[in-house]
Specification:
Blueprint: E1 10-15, E2 18-23, H1 29-36, H2 41-62
């Protein structure tokens, strides 16, 4: 797995028998399940808004747009 460090939301995750700071978007589904626990809707809203900003920044920087399927 490549750690791209794109979103800046880091958690301490144990990988390969050592603790590491892993970016949210680089975490496995299982790691996310462990981290999220009982997080509330306010936490998820903050994560979603931050990820939206990251995606927009990447799109602007590389002039990326979704292709129209029509």
């Amino acid at each position: 797995m490549i750690n791209r460090d794109l979103d800046g939301i880091y958690f301490r995750v144990k990988r390969d028998d050592r603790w590491q700071n892993i970016c949210f978007s680089d975490m496995t589904d299982e790691e996310i399940d462990t981290i999220i626990g009982e997080r509330g809707s306010d936490w998820w809203k903050a994560v979603a808004l931050h990820l939206k900003e990251c995606i927009n920044k990447i799109g602007e920087e590389f002039d990326i747009r979704s292709l129209d399927s029509e």
